[in-house]
Amino acid sequence: MPAIDFDDISKTFRHGIRRQSALKGMSLSIHRGEIFGFLGPNGAGKSTAIKVLLNFIRPDRGRVCVEGLVVGKDRFQHHIGYLPETPCFYENLSGLETLWFAGKASGMGGQDIKENAHQVLGRLDLKAAGPWPVRTYSKGMKQRLGLAMALIHDPEIYILDEPMSGLDPLGRRLITDVILDLRQQGKTVFFSSHILSDVERLCDRIGILNKGELLFSGAAAEIVQDGSSLEDAFVRLIEDHEKAHGV
Amino acid sequence: MSKIFLIAWITFKDSIRNKALYGIFFFGLVLFAANIIITGMFSWELGKVAVDVGLSVVSFAGLVIIFFLSINLVSNDLDKKTIYLILSRPVSKLQYILGKYTGLGLIILLSSAVLGACAALSVKVATYNVKGYIPLHFSWPVFFLGLTFLTLSLLVVLAIALLWVSLTTHPFTAVLLSLLSYFIGQNVENVKNIITTGKMFAENPTLITMTEYVSWLFPNLAAFDLKTTAAYGLSVDAAYLMWVAAYGLSYIGVCLILTVLIFQRRELP
Q: Which residues from B are below 8 Å from A133, CB to CB?
């Protein structure tokens, strides 16, 4: 059984009288214990796929399963940790209070929350900032607090939407190390990113999406030709797809 | 149930540290000082004026909290996607809405308690040396009963405001519709009486039917207004008050059920 299974997902958004297709029959399976990189240009449908996966929006067709549980029908959220692209918090709460809320909402006990919060804040270099109100945090600190919220309850599956966006090189290194740690622990990580070098380094498999269609799914080595980089392969695949569709 | 209280707790804690709330409280305190000055300008019925102004300030501050703080806080959850961090956990939309209402309701209760105490103090100070101008039967229990029903009316308005937030996509629209509902609710009983009993509209059955529907749809907020009763210390009919309380709680219940039903269908793109 795959950790995450998208089965023939289609989603259309309405803009006034115009309808725009964001996902066109996307099928994709993420295996347990793998790090899967979800790539695509802006507007490809990556975030839409993640929102369908998290039950924030309903697909027009198809279904998504997490650990065999049907999204929109079964309770699956206790299996996942989620980091949005630009995490927003209750700005007047402190980092520690935010983590306490995240732990409680995930069904953790007070003592476990205390221990895990201490450990996670230390891991993400936020220990000193724990008691500060979130409104005093920098963008990078907020991104790391968002990741701390995803980590606090130690779930099996991590869904990270652009986890490196807006981070300085040190912040990127920190997040990269956390993802590598998760791989060692046998966790499943499904993340979208524009930074192809990170994806190439971290991922067991990748998926490339363009205009709502999944163009490729497999190991990065399968798409990279001799001497070229993942970036070259990615650009070539997108251009071929757009030419084929007369864009 | 514990998830509802969890959402209520973070809502209350985030709101109580909001600087806008302190601004509203400060403004309320200034108005109480003004109450003492305003009352001093009257040469008769000082007690009635002091009670009227005092309770009006509590009501005004509560409405400002609902229209400009509560609606904004819930809309921000949707606009800035703070809600993603809540609903990506084992928390249902039902628990989210009930938690938000409870948290914001606690802020209203706190505001009524603090400003109500200040209102009582301002009434006491304004009428300190003018015993002759205080209505004969004025009683503090009736004053606090008036404050309680005023708070219940604010909780009704809060439930309507949450309903509008769930129906609209922009906080400004939600504020406008909530304000409109409030003004209709304040005047619906009077307008209904004029239209249904007056001879002027007797030949316009459509208007009479429409007024009947509007009076069922919008809350009769005037029913919660006990300012005159409190100011004159008039006797209160316990059965009537029980009905008003049951009406208010039922109205809140219906609004919250509708909000949850709408919110469960709403997508969060």
A: 17
